[in-house]
Amino acid sequence: MSKEQLENVEVFTSSFSSEQQKELANRLITFLSQYSHLSDSFIIEFFSENLWDTLPKTWQAVLQDLSFPQIADLLLDAANNNRRYPSVWPLSLLAFRATAHALTFPREPRCDRGSVAEPKKPEEFLENHSQSSLLGHIFRKHVKPKKQHEIRKLGMLVKQLCEQTGCRRVVDVGSGQGHLTRFLSFGLRLSVTAIEADPTLVAMASRFDGELLWVLEKEKHKKKLRPEALPIPRHVAGWVNPKESWEVFIQQLKSPDHVGDDPVTLCNKKICSDVAHPSRLCGGQSQDLHQNDAEEDPSAGSLNHSAHEEGVSPDESHLQRSNDFVLTGLHACGDLSATLLRLFVSCPHVRGITSVACCYMKITTKESPTPPGLVTAPDLLPSGHESFGYPMSSWVRGLPGHQLSYKAREGACHALEDYVRRLREESELLRSHCYRAMLETFIRDTRPDLHRAGIQTIKKSHLLSFTEYARLGLARVGLPPDLPLDPERVAAMLKHQNKVVVYFSLSLLLAPVVETLVLLDRIIYLQENDVESRLVPLFNPNFSPRNFVLVALKPSR
Ligand SMILES: C[S@@+](CC[C@H](N)C(=O)[O-])C[C@H]1O[C@@H](n2cnc3c(N)ncnc32)[C@H](O)[C@@H]1O
């Protein structure tokens, strides 16, 4: 890892002894248990469950008149050293905020750490908002700016981990449309097998590979360049089963059902030599790394890459015999991140791992073994604590009160920086929680059984009056859109919009604390299995809220 990354990481874990990690888990759980009524609450129930009245009276008094920018400055912005209070705050509220900030892993790399008052866009997007200046155009096609930022940064880290572990092979699990896979293969010339549960996404990934190869082929003709062999990614459609052994996982990767040959037929397994000089494909900071790549032969073995072996030098054949690889998962949702960590621990061939998690609410727990959104066959559900997504470590499992509700974990997926920005801008979008909470009271009056009914986001709701919003919302839950809405009651609730925002901000303060506990549990799990890991805030959190990468490697054999 680079010096910069090492420095960032030291703050988190490498400077923590195993005892300190355990002590931190203890403190997190004690703190979260005390405020679970906040993290477990649903903002849509603000009026129907009188959530404001669940706050201490002393808190209510000082919070109720805060402006939106004051909420950002005084509550959420951990880096603000110049707080100006309009009134004297009770110690319990100051302690709540200070503890939440102190227990949370810092979300910015140390060099960027500052007030969220001035959110910085990654430099790579300063010239063009939608195109990273550091990523070659062929890797930007079909890829949103956020993902461009992620694949470039994670790709470089994976490449570095490969260098440290001596692996040329990477397995990208939950690869989606294959954006990271493509950059790792064609940009960084690693031998990649991608596995993804959704066959539609696998087909798209393969098609996008083909498009990329087609572009390179055209450029090759134009520039009259010599064709050159290239490691073409291999895509496997398959669901990685958390209950299966690592041997089954390896067999799955070798599955003959892969769809990786399509791009090869498009481009006849040969490719323009731009790929041998990726500095032409990628600019800026990435060039140094890429210049090293240009010295290497692009061909490398993979778990079953017989179709791509022409052009492989004899020197490399020993690499192909080796089955070692680095495991990666970019926003491997729900249990998938936990599954990857278990595979890393159990499988001797996995030498390193980079794990970026997301969708913590889809994680299975003993209390919630089938969370909403979990797509799997019932007989494949986890049956024992050894395969639940949380907690993973024996230590955390043994701490009373370690449980994290579905709601607390869902809250941990919120984009705190984005909300702070809205507060500072006094954005009208902040009205949406109040509208939804008001609507909930009318829905429950008519049909109590429809409480917490799912209403898809109503577009541009901040531009609508509440009545217009309610008409659309009522129709979504099957109630008459012209249901009478008492105007006095509507007006009375609208007056409390600030309180809704304050209450939501208090619960949002706990979101990074919950995320810290989930990730710390994984770090302790690795520690219990004799593996040291590091947590890197790799992505810009203003851009990519789930920005932590858990990195680990095994000692060389
Ligand atoms: C949030 S998406 C991320 C996709 C991609 N890595 C990216 O960053 O664009 C997570 C992906 O993991 C896949 N997935 C979830 N559980 C899986 C499993 N057990 N085995 C294989 N794929 C899985 C989902 O289908 C989904 O495409």
Number of strands: 7
CATH topology of the domain at 137-362 and 534-553: Rossmann fold
Q: Termini, distance in Å?
A: 19 Å
Alpha-beta classification: alpha/beta
Ligands bound to this protein structure: S-adenosylmethionine
Helix content: 40-55%
Largest sheet: 7 strands, mixed
Any low-confidence stretches, pLDDT <50, length ≥5? 1-13, 260-314
Organism: Nothobranchius kadleci (African annual killifish)
Region (Disordered): 283-318
Biased composition (Basic and acidic residues): 306-318
Keywords: Methyltransferase, Transferase
Could you describe the 3D structure shown?
There is one protein chain. By secondary structure, the protein is α/β, with parallel strands linked by helices. It has a domain of 246 residues: Rossmann fold (3-Layer(aba) Sandwich). It contains 22 helices and seven strands. It has a seven-stranded mixed beta sheet with strand order 3-2-1-4-5-7-6, with helices on both faces. Helix 9 links the parallel strand 1 and strand 2. Helix 5 runs antiparallel to helix 18. It is globular and about 75 Å long. The N terminus is likely disordered. The site of S-adenosylmethionine has 19 residues, from helix 9, strand 2 and strand 4.
